[in-house]
Design brief:
There is one protein chain. This protein folds into two domains: 92 residues, Aminopeptidase (3-Layer(aba) Sandwich), CATH 3.40.630.30; 31 residues. Helices cover 39% and strands 20% of the residues. The protein has a four-stranded mixed beta sheet with strand order 1-2-3-4. Strand 3, helix 2 and strand 4 form a beta-alpha-beta unit.
Length: 142
Amino acid sequence: MPWYVRAMCDRFRAERRLHVFTLETPDATVLAVQLSVTGGDTLFQLKTGYDERYRRFSPGLQLQLDVMDHVARSIDVARIDSCTYEGNEMLLRICPERREVANVVVAVGGRRDRAYLQALAGARRLAGRARRPRRSEGRPDA
């Protein structure tokens, strides 16, 4: 485990905000693990991993459902943030609510800060164009 993850876990553990959930067999074989932290009234599910040998039994999904039950009974939070990506169909089916996340950059200085923000906005536009799929020459628009 990288030192910075260990340091992060140590700090959250000291504040009683670190939650490590596991799905295990009776003989203590670990099938899945989830690392979560609480912040305010939310449980943030940072990372879930499972043993690929047991993939056909969906241990990650089973753990997710167990965690949701446990949180409802035992942890004082208003919501669970799955911290997942837009295309994670499995988690989006069981956790359909989404939050908007945005980055905000504010210039507080003079011309140099304004120039920096304009350059940053231009770079974001270019990056957005680069991520969009390109249409092939000669193909009709869909």
